[in-house]
Amino acid sequence: MASVSNDAATHRGPGRARWLVVLVPYVWLLLFFVAPFLIILKISLSDTAISMPPYTPVFEGFGAIGDFISELDFENYVFLTDDPLYIQAYISSLRIAVISTLLLLLIGYPMALAMARAPTSIRPTLVMLVILPFWTSFLIRVYAWIGILKPDGLLTLLLQTIGLMGPDDQIQIFRTDTAVFIGIVYSYLPFMVLPLYSALEKMDNTLLEAANDLGCPPLKAFWRITFPLSLPGVIAGSMICFIPITGEFVIPDLLGGADTLMIGKTLWTEFFGNRDWPLASAVAVILLLALVVPIMIFQNQQKKVA
Amino acid sequence: MGLPFSFQDDFGRNGAPMAKTLGPVKRKFSPWTDPSAVPFIRFENITKRFGNFTAVDNLTLDIYEREFFSLLGPSGCGKTTLMRMLAGFDEPTEGRILLQGKDISGVPPYRRPTNMMFQSYALFPHMTVEKNIAFGLEQDKLPKGEITARVEEMLKLVKLEQFAKRKPNQLSGGQRQRVALARSLAKRPKVLLLDEPLGALDKKLREETQFELMDIQHTLGLTFLIVTHDQEEAMTVSDRIAVMERGVIVQVATPAEIYEAPNSRYVADFIGDINIVDGTVKKTDSALGAPGAVTIDCGGLTFAAEQECQAVVGDNVAYAVRPEKVRISPEQPADTSVNAVNGEVWDIGYLGDFSVFIVKLDDGRVMRAAQANVSRLVDRPITFGDRVWLSWPLDAGLVLTR
């Protein structure tokens, strides 16, 4: 009998430990994602007020549930659809995110492929080089781009020195969409290269030899074998870049011009410029909803791969 | 003509050769003995170096049409490199490869009339079995109908018709191996290259597949070149075997010649089980190159072999005899002057079909004798510690000069 109860105890032990392991990330997500989101959602349904905090709370304790429900209003959301500024900002953000992601794929794929085909001994070094920019603050790196791109910056100097540009000409990239694309592609490249590399690196090279052997020339073999097999990496990299780019604020703010419309910038203006917290929260909620769809696609794809 | 009982039902599922539908009767095939025969593939003074390492060293080899040819050797002997050069994945550093008399140097792999079955199978994981087999045919831009027909034919050949829509990861190891075979055969290559094709299969399945490979090769009339380190596999399937060591070919011959008349210690030792002792030539009954008995003194024991004499008196040679050719008996043989030794049974290895007796001679040396277990007696007449005599006829032994 003793041995039986012992068995039961040893069986319960790991069971509990397993629960703890599962529980910790969920508690984390609950505290730091779900709870703040609910707060934002609550604020988005409130009215603006000139006070501290600058909105009329709609929920005061459990006794006031009736009041809360009756006071809920979607006026902020309605306002978002009324003013074309917001819709244009969303569309412009998605456009910039799509173009940036395509550029990232175009630049990141050959890089990842070259890394995956490099001799095994130098691959860790190459991976380290890709991660190297993270050793400096993101903000400093974006400021550095200002120094490069501004009209009297390093790029102009370089072009003048090699004679591609007259001494009085200046390059007009800073404070345009082009500068935003340069900044985004530069900042997000590691997030594109690493998933692509990990997908390409584990690919069996004999598959390409087999394709060659069966009469398929190398370039065609890339499209028939390498690319389809790297699709999970392509999707992972694209999602990891696309989602945060859509909400990007720092890069368009520092490198973009007045006409660079991005939802992150709009959100910032509403929060800190207009101090309209409820409207800003509504903008944030809609942004989240707009991103949930690609996230779901991503998850679905991951499940299919697994 | 019906049998009194059916082997098919009793043994068919195990794939015993007796039960399977046998292919056409094999005929004696030996184009290499015909001096007028033109080789299908010729490796001409091939050398391949990787940096400082010489993988293949000035190697010349002829392979004939419809031959099932094996390259046999330990890992690193250059056999795979040789095959990869024929497939076009590596180019020889020196020498040239002729296919049907034409130099194929510089022809890329996708333009060579060879197809390869890879050791890892290299099936495309994102394609179904059907698509994998069709891949090569699609590259040739064959009409759709023809591709479908050929794929069906191949699926039937490897008995995978009901698995056409599966992906490789939904198949067992044996099934994947069949898909790989079907894919490499689909284009009807002039030469099929097989790189350790059966390595990943368990013994029973491997043996079954070996016979299937032979049938397929025979039915389709193709030339097969197989690379293997498994001597049993090479013996079973091949018309001829090339035994390789460190980039050179040590011996090219039929399986029986390789086994019964190895040309060197290396080949004798690599193929099968063998007793080898060092000795010096005491007497030769014939001139160099003529057949006759050669008598060897091996540290007090006198052994003799009847063969083409390749040594003169006083030469240091090796004497070899296969365990299954050694007779083991408790009684003293009539003539104990030559090829007869006396010792104690040290150990017995019971292998089911055979028993191997390890006999410790009085001078401390060890010899092995194998005996077929022809009766079902469990109590053997010879057991541990028994004094026994080992003896063998003159034509069983071998004198190895290399």
Enumerate the spans of chain A where pLDDT stays under 50 for 5 or more consecutive residues: 1-10
What is the approximate shape of chain A? globular
Major beta sheet of chain A, specifics? Answer: 2 strands, antiparallel
Specify the CATH class of chain A: Mainly Alpha
Largest sheet of chain B: 6 strands, mixed
Strand coverage percent of chain A: under 5%
- CATH homologous superfamily placement of chain A: MetI-like
Domains of chain B, number: 2
In the CATH hierarchy, the third-tier topology of the largest domain in chain B is known as Rossmann fold
Major sheet: arrangement of strands of chain A? 1-2
**Largest contact between chains:** A-B, 17 and 24 residues
Whole-number average pLDDT of chain A?
Answer: 84
Give the termini distance of chain A in whole angstroms. Answer: 43 Å
EC number (chain B): 7.6.2.11
Subunit structure (chain B): The complex is composed of two ATP-binding proteins (PotA), two transmembrane proteins (PotB and PotC) and a solute-binding protein (PotD).
GO molecular function (chain B): ABC-type putrescine transporter activity; ATP binding; ATP hydrolysis activity
InterPro entries (chain B): AAA+_ATPase, ABC_SmlMolc_Importer, ABC_transporter-like_ATP-bd, ABC_transporter-like_CS, Mo/tungstate-bd_C_term_dom, P-loop_NTPase, PotA-like, PotA_ATP-bd
